[in-house]
Automatic annotation (TrEMBL), chains A, B, C, D:
This is Gfo/Idh/MocA family oxidoreductase. Residues 144-276 form the GFO/IDH/MocA-like oxidoreductase domain. It comes from the Bacteria. The lineage of its organism: Bacteria, Pseudomonadati, Bacteroidota, Flavobacteriia, Flavobacteriales. GO terms for molecular function: nucleotide binding. Residues 5-134 form the Gfo/Idh/MocA-like oxidoreductase N-terminal domain. It comes from Robertkochia marina.
Length: 380, 380, 380, 380
């Protein structure tokens, strides 16, 4: 077997998430970055590629050029898949074109601006049979997998109550008016879509909730805030949610929660037990029980289900973090792709897919609609 | 000066909150329990009194008897105030009668079953000029006072976002069907009123939020749950709230949050900083800032405002808990009462009052109404 | 039955530990403070007593006067026991005189300045049959009792390794040169004895270690520090210890650990499991196991042994603190004394005794000797 | 510029630390693994190499073969440096030979079995001018660099007291008697050297202490334990230490601390402030102060010194872990090496060097000597 070959769309030098994708894809030694359209400016793309030690001829000035030229390279050389790490409005076109030209896709979230675009991608994936991974990276943490499997195995009993929060403070002041690129596009509806913080982090909250519980949000009442002066997109939100099995709960997210760093946290209460997980301390899963003491699970520690046990890379007590969880999405996608390329059949691996992307985009639109109607209950 | 003399209504042997009131009122050595109507059964009342080392003649079979007989005792002997520690439906009548007969009152929460009853008490307090303390005991914690004063002093800037949760798990199973008295009356509308967990702990969440922020909830959307089989009262609830200054947030409370003990927690986000406090670790106040490191305040520690500094009883690092915070309500009430009895004028001391009780009862009724209307926004 | 009657020696207004003893003895409603020799100055003693609502005639100008006069009062009126809350050098004489005159004793630690004095008290207690409680208050915490009972029941297997630390920072600067009475006597060998921090907090570390493990320190190598300018007594210390069963470990204590409040913590490692407890978060007992997840025990929570279950006063999640643990020493002493006064036989209750006091004083002297010999191993 | 080319010695499939070195060296995209002597068995080495996607001809059966053959490759192809990830007894020879043949070295710790071997390497590095990095990986954590720089800048004032602990439990039972390779060589003096846990983790404790404080241990009294049946090497140890400036403290390490995972922690107390860091929660640096509240620093957070700020790879709140800290050693080594290869001059980068390796080996031998003399003070 050989290493997988990745082409990157977006992610020029200075990009936050492009750098994360590069590091995450390299940790497990399965994937080589072989080409990129790092910028829509050819010169800037080549400059970024050079800093990444890529040959100039494989640094392209547009994703169209990359897809076309790579397609013409010999099979033993051309990229296997694209990683799309652009702002939201630039996910759909590259993903569509990649799929139409036979390339597998890893795409950042939210998947597209509109529900229709997402449905198009879902259909394309079905039609082409190509692999599509969506980087809901928080599902890659071992303790998140443990949480999911404890619930799937009935350890907590029927789920009754949920709480998810995703709190950041980096937009507490209007940094989009300074030279902050990250803030600029995220507060710009033409690039971010109809959701601000909602799309950026609210979708992670939604995905984590549905991933861990195995339940779906059936309806929601959303009250969005726009606290930064001059912002048209939400920078804060609070929701009531009702789940498919009758459970109830709240989702709260914010990018104006002053001083918060990346405080994604979830609490799930079942009839027999409950669990709690905090992204900022990802290596602890707190659980509480009707008749037993409070128990804390750790990666590589005692009494784990298989997925948690196998998704930890190093012995217990050696903290794994954000990049490793992100890498697990790549690793699982990579395993499935390698098997495919070798003509082997493997069970579907554990990573978020195009359908999860559609779900997230529906969530954004439902929340925006609810908010417009003064937080009226809205089906999802 | 002399010690204050307290008469207790309710709180017979085996009672949870009666015992708490006795311990809390005794810590500071200012108050003696001198009489009680511990039960509506004369024999049981006397038995309870005996175990508390009280003379038989001051253990009464009803609050009416106690108020009448004590009133006839010489001034140097009769009780100064009553402490009402009965289930909810038995707050109003004793409080009213005590006030009408010249006795000051300490009363547990929620203050009454109906808004009208609460308004009656507010008016009676106004008319008689007697003191009335409501035991929203969580306001007694030094770090809660520090939180309030940091916001009042503008340290956090304009408040934008709030989160309050009060999570317990003791009603996760239907313990009211066993021999659990606490559960029995709390799930019985005739004793608890229209709110279940809502009245029992939701009111603490509301009070804490308004106490710390100095803002009031202007409207709410409440989605209540009744998860325990056969329950007619809520045992869980989630709310969206909007505050008087435009801030937004959530309140979540539950008594079916399996495994949770007494997890009352609050997060407040302002333009310049934010704070976080957890009742189960009451001696830490977490604060986050735009430009400074995360800071933690502790009772007796550095950089406290006066109320926090003076409401700690022992040096920093010697944990104070639930009883001490509860005792602070008694201590502050007691200071004001002592001054009154000595004919001195003192500034109004820092403890929750009859108006806070009215506010809580309004909150219960607004939430129930919102819930009936599928979580429609309801003014408070 | 009646309430117990306590006479206090030391503890005038402004005293730290006297106030703690008063609060702790009052929480459970079993003990009344009836008299005191709060100061060796008669006027000051009376002034303190007045603030405590005591009649002037029972506020004495010396412990000798108190013991003599109280002895002459009728049995139904005179104090039952003395609480000795003076600086170290004033423990022995009052304790001896109280015992010789038939009064039971509660005494602060370290018990005496010399080993000989301690042995005298041990013998007097044996001879008189009177009760003697030493306020090693940290043994009163429910989770400390749980720790002890887990080890006693073999849950952890044979103990191999121990770590105890007791870190404070209040003597990081030379506050004894300011108007700080607490610092003044603690850094004065004539009042504190041969140990400084060693006697004040090192003895708590020693006691906690032996209490929880059920093992004794057989030898130690102590390296004491005197960091504050001009100090002749230690304000810091580090020790290697070897226990009676072959276990090894360290004790570290300090009053110059800048910024530390009252950080007493212990870790015990056995063949099958281990435990960890922190005084500043006293309501959690952390345990780790060969084959099971990390478990945390809480007062009133699941799976407790009897002593921990019964020594908690309020439901789980309602934090109990320093005063409550201190109160448990009084409560258990009080139960035994009440039974005695009523002529009943009760099993020996769970509180530290005169023998623990002797042990602590031996520990101080052994550490000082070891330190003088450049931390040579010294038997205890 | 081009990527650096690494050859690995040891680290065949299934190895713990070899895999860590591979992941850590790949994260930043600066280093390619190009060859390896993964095993002293040629076939096993080639099998490991294949799984790592290496060409067969660059998988060697011995480090000698690798060094010789790689030396003969054209400059544009041959490895730039070796990474030595073998058990302790196999560090010296490969390191020596690599240096003698012009290859830079990254080597795991402890550097060698004997002090003489370490001195040989120190001299070779001096003579050849080649780079030598020792993977004391814990120095790579951003908060460890912050701790060092706070002390170097005098924020804490003169250091008075230190505590270091490194606690693991994986040797609590005699797993070396099962099929556990990691345990087998670590408990075997012929492979591990004179120190067991002492060499494996005690040296990390020593290095961290000296790295953060900028002070050196001048003497120590060490009491080592051998608790596992049949072990000749220590599996536990406790030490008193005295530092070059008069500070005092303890080091405690263990691999029989049942249930502990990788609990390396340090506390440093200065005249003006103190700090505390825990490897298992590496993204928090706790600090305490004479006159200010408790403050917590985080990577990417507010108020950091430059080294901490720049050694974090992702925004604050996105946890970085063990691999990232390890990667920072490689990154800094790589930066210096790249500059060297390009003929540029750069300031010495921040990573542990051959002198740190010598220090660690001296520490091991001093501790063993002290222990043999019943924990007598021994100079370091």
């Amino acid at each position: 077997m050989r290493k997988l070959r990745m082409g990157m769309i977006g992610g020029g030098i200075g990009s936050f998430i492009g750098d994360v994708h590069r590091k995450a894809s390299s940790i497990d030694g399965m994937i080589d970055l072989v080409c990129g359209a790092f910028s829509s400016n050819d010169e800037r793309s080549k400059k970024s590629g050079k800093a990444l030690f890529l040959p100039e001829e494989r640094c392209y000035g547009s994703f169209q050029e990359m897809i076309e030229k790579e397609k013409q390279l010999p099979e033993g050389e051309r990229m296997d898949f694209v990683a799309i790490v652009t702002p939201n409005h630039m996910h759909f076109e590259p993903a569509k074109m990649a799929l139409e030209n036979g390339f597998h896709v890893v795409c950042d979230k939210p998947m597209t601006l509109t529900v229709e675009e997402s449905e198009t991608l879902v259909n394309l994936v079905k039609k082409t049979g190509l692999l599509f991974a969506l980087t809901h990276n928080y599902t890659g943490y071992p303790m998140v997998k443990q949480a999911r499997d404890m619930i799937a195995n009935g350890d907590l009993g029927t789920i009754r109550k949920v709480q998810v929060q995703y709190l950041q403070g980096w937009l507490a002041t209007e940094v989009e008016k300074t030279d902050n690129k990250q803030a600029a596009w995220r507060t710009d509806p033409s690039k971010s879509g109809v959701g601000g913080a909602l799309g950026d982090i609210g979708t992670h909250a939604e995905n984590l909730l549905e991933f861990i519980t195995g339940l779906s949000i059936s309806e929601m009442a959303a009250d969005l805030g726009r606290f930064g002066q001059g912002r048209t997109l939400d920078d804060d939100g609070n929701m009531l949610v009702r789940l498919s099995n009758g459970a109830k709960g709240t989702i709260s997210f914010s990018q104006i929660a002053t001083g918060e760093e990346n405080n994604l946290a979830i609490r799930i209460y079942g009839e027999k037990g409950s669990l709690e997980w905090h992204q900022e301390e990802p290596n602890k899963l707190y659980t509480r029980w009707l008749d037993e003491p409070f128990k804390v699970f750790t990666p590589g520690g005692n009494s784990l289900y298989e997925a948690a046990a196998s998704s930890s890379r190093i012995p217990s007590g050696h903290p794994e973090g954000y990049l490793e969880a992100f890498a697990t999405v790549y690793r699982n996608f990579g395993k499935e792709l390698m098997a495919r390329l070798e003509g082997n059949t493997v069970p579907a691996q554990d990573y978020p897919r195009v359908e999860d992307g559609l779900r997230g985009v529906k969530f954004i639109h439902a929340a925006v609609e609810s908010d417009k109607n003064n937080a009226a209950w809205t089906k999802l």
